[in-house]
Specification:
- The structure is a single chain.
- About 25% of the residues lie in helices and about 20% in strands.
- With about 450 residues, the protein is an alpha/beta fold.
- It folds into 2 domains: about 1-35, no CATH class; about 70-438, Alpha-Beta Barrel (TIM Barrel), CATH 3.20.20.
- The strands form 5 sheets. Strands 15-13-14-12-11-9-8-7-5-16-17-20 form a 12-stranded mixed sheet. The protein has a two-stranded antiparallel ribbon with strand order 1-2. A two-stranded antiparallel sheet has the order 3-4.
- A hairpin with a 2-residue loop joins strand 18 (about 355-360) and strand 19.
- The protein starts with 6 loop residues before the first strand and ends in a 42-residue tail after the last helix.
Length: about 450
Amino acid sequence: MKKKDAGCRRTKGRPLPGEPDAAYWDEILEPDPCGEIRIRSEMLARMGLDPSAGIVLRRTQEGLLLRSAAQPLTKVYLEPTTDCNLRCRTCMRSSWSEPGGSMDLGLVRKVLEDLVRLPRMPELSFWGFGEPLLHPDILEMIRLAKQAGAPTELVTNGLLLNRSAADRLLALGLDKLVVSIDGVSPESHGQTRTGADLETVKKNVTYLNAARLFAGLERPEIGIEFVLMRRNLSDLPNLPELARSLGASFVIVTNVLPYTEDLKDEILYGMSAAEWPRSARRFGDSPEVRLPRLDIREGTREAVTGFLVNAGSFGAHSAAPADLEAWCPFVWEGKTAIAWNGDVAPCVALLHSYTSFVLGRQKSIRRWAVGNVGREDLIEIWNKPEYREFRRRLASFDFAPCIHCDCEMAEANEEDCFGSPFPTCGDCLWARGVILCP
């Protein structure tokens, strides 16, 4: 009997609650006459894989994982300014000594000119260690990004999001608005964010959401980012209701990374937090929630359980490859970061030099500028040999497990006992799922 030609049959996979059916499907691969399994080009294209760049095949606890060996650039974090109208205890600005400043509008134009040559325009996140709405040209930056075809995100503390700014953002077509809120009451919010006024933030976001609904717009999608620590743990169960009242479709709960010694005792994570971050998909009018690694024990169990119950979300799933102890979300998801002065870093953690405390141990982080978009092409920076090699190292995460020890090499990100060159990432809390970013 003649063997049939190699091919594939497509079947529907079972989507998670709240996911569109089209996002999930199965491919049944059948052998060719020689008994070999081949993945056809149209299937690779549907999965977003470029065979000319190579494909990484990884065996995981959940099955086989396919990903491109040359991850395309999908998101760019732009830091409009390091100026801020608040003095947050949890901010990196409290532990660095480098000069700050604001991004020149011409630099944004240059970035967009570089990015439009890509097959797909990356998302631009106007974010950073400062308040983006303080930049006098922030709305023009967003307009230029939208004009270039980029999905746009704005991360803000919400104080300057007045009616005029909200109306402009709606008119510009902002895609996503992330508001930083660290307490459900004015008192708890103000304890962390010195100078903050939660009632003003709520009023501003409520107006934007109402104006969006009145205009019949689906965008911007509204989200809340909440920095969790011991002092605001009791606020966690009431966070879903606050999110619903503001029209938020997602909530990102992240742990605090202490930049000063007085915050060391505020952390709610430790080595017992072995599970990967969990993400619960949106159900009904409840926001999608993302949780970091946490120690679930007496003192935290009640608050975390109350949060999940009140969030009303189902279909929890792991956000990371199940067999990896650590993974870099910036590399795996094709992200890069640009500081206010044009310096390009692989991630937000390497955007500046600062001191932090990792599980109580002081650690000095030296920034790594791979290039500068004011003097170089962003795509050429992305494809620099040293940047590509760094991403390759991070894809396998072959770093010393500095998170497990306190030897002197763990005091900085210069080198580790595996002989890894600068920068080393063995105890990066972003890679450990402890710290989450939008």
